[in-house]
Model the fold of this input.
Amino acid sequence: MAGPTALVSALREELATVLGLMPDEQQQVFGGRTFWRGHLHGHDVVAVLSGIGKVAAATTATALIERFGVQRIVFTGVAGGLAPGVRVGDVVVARQFLQHDMDASPIFPRHEVPGYGRSTFDADAALTDQLVRASDMVLKDLPALLGDEVMRTFDLQSPRCHLGLLLSGDRFVSTTAESAALREDLPTALAVEMEGAAFAQVCHDYGVPLAVVRTISDRADDAAHVDFPRFLHEVASRYSGAIVEALLRG
Ligand code: SAH
Done:
């Protein structure tokens, strides 16, 4: 393979899990970000924290491609569930991405990215298939990964993996009214987060394969379902570490 695989997360806890699996990582600071070069299960990898939001995501993606010559990008993180069957503890793998806050109407149709003639960007089909298989494997054996107490605490009953449309925007969606509006506007959307679609646009520009997996941390509504930091630490970061390992083991 030509260049390294990029492993990206938005949140510190998730990257920490991945870095813990890399025996020989070396830091490089570039564009205000720390990149860790190293190896994981025999793969040449570069790990980085994107930060939160579309601009941070786009500059991170560009640096990974221009500076490190990555040949594929895998993003793991958390998201708010939108579709009715997408529950806390489930996993969403993106097949397509859309910027739900893109609106240059009436010059362009709502959600269309000006200059591209389209509102959605695709994930790489082959890499996404591999990510779905890795996620399914991890979900099948979840009690072994998390322990019964964590399964009970977070009420994780047979979590599922969903494949479909992922929304991104520069907004943490945390009211029932806002998530209802998104569901009405974009009924096929599975979940909402703040980075994926920006990565997808940059990867489209450069022709670099991208796959994104998100653990559902909340339902993007008023109800605080759990202690978010605890969910992140005890559930989401363990999911992402295990999914990345399963993916790279092949
Ligand atoms: N405690 C964290 C909160 C970040 S939550 C902190 O202080 O850093 C926002 C991150 O989680 C974003 O990176 C976004 O991609 C994702 N996310 C999870 N739930 C979301 C929601 N309901 N709406 C938008 N983004 C969400």
User: Anything to note?
Assistant: The domain at 5-249 is CATH 3.40.50.1580 (Rossmann fold). The chain is about 40% helix and 30% strand.
